[in-house]
Amino acid sequence: MQLSTKHLLGIKELSPEDITTILTTAAQFKEVLQRPIKKVPSLRDVTIVNLFYENSTRTRISFELAEKRLSADTINFTASGSSVSKGETLLDTVNNILSMKVDMVVMRHSASGAPHFLSKHLPNTAIVNAGDGINEHPTQALLDAFSIQERIGELKGKKVVLVGDIMHSRVALSNIYLLKKMGAEVMVAGPPTLIPKYITEALGVKVEYNLKKALQWCDVANVLRIQLERQNQVLFSSLREYNLAYGVTRKLMDEINKDIVIMHPGPINRGVEIDSDVADGNESIILQQVENGVAVRMAVLYLLAGRKD
Questions:
Q1: Looking at residue 308, what is its pLDDT?
Q2: Are 226 and 204 within one domain?
C-alpha cells in the first residue's frame, strides 16, 4: 500500500483512497502496539527530524513515540515561534536539513503554509505537517476519524458536529475536509463571532448557533478548545458566559437524551468548553484519541517512507 502523495501537508491534498489506506494501516499498527514487544524494524536507518517551532505536548510526544516504535533515528528540534516567524529563517533550516541527509521532517509552525514552503525546497525529503498556523492539522483529523470508526463504524452517513472556536482551529479545517471526503455530514456550532461568515458556501457545512439543537442532530460531537492565544480581539464576553451558552455540560447531555460520542483534540479547558464529568464520562473517547494518535502517526510515517517489508 502506498499514498498518492510524497508529503502529508494537509487533508486537502489527500484522496479518499489515501485516507482509507492510512486508517487501514493504522489498525494494523494498533495491533502491534497491543503486543508485549511494541517495537518493529519498519523504519530502521530512516532519519526523522521533529521541527517544532510552536509549543506542543501531545502531538510531539505522539510523533516521537511513533518514530521510536518504528525503530527510526530521530532528531528533536524545538524553538520559540517568535525567533522563526519569517520565511527567511526557514531557509537556514532547509540548508541544515539538506546537509544532514534527513529522510523525513515532522514540522509544526505558527505560520500557515510553512510545511508547504519546506516541501518546495526539500525535494528528496518527506514533510509531515504537525500543525501550521490556523491552516491544517492533518494527523489530528486522521486520528479523530480512526477513533470514530473504532467506536461507531464507517464515516459515510455519520453526522458530526464541530463545536466551539471554528475560526481559529486548524483541527476544524482538517476534520471538515476529511469528513466531507469520506461521506459524513458535517455541522459547525458555536458563537457567531467564532464561526467564519462564508463557511457554508466555502466548505459545504451546516451552521448552528444553538448548541442543544446541534447535539440533538449529531452522532459525534468534537469539542474544540477556545484558542485565546490566537484571538487578537474580544470575541465573547467571558469564559463563564461561554460555558453557559456553549459548554458541553452533564446537564445538557441529560437534556438531549440521546447517545452521542464526545471527542476533544486537547488540551482541554475543563469548565469552559466541556465539563469534567462529560470529558471523563462513558460517552467520551478522548483518551482513545490519544492512544490512537500513535498508531495513526506510525501509519503516516511508514507509508511516506515507502518501505516494503
A1: 42
A2: yes
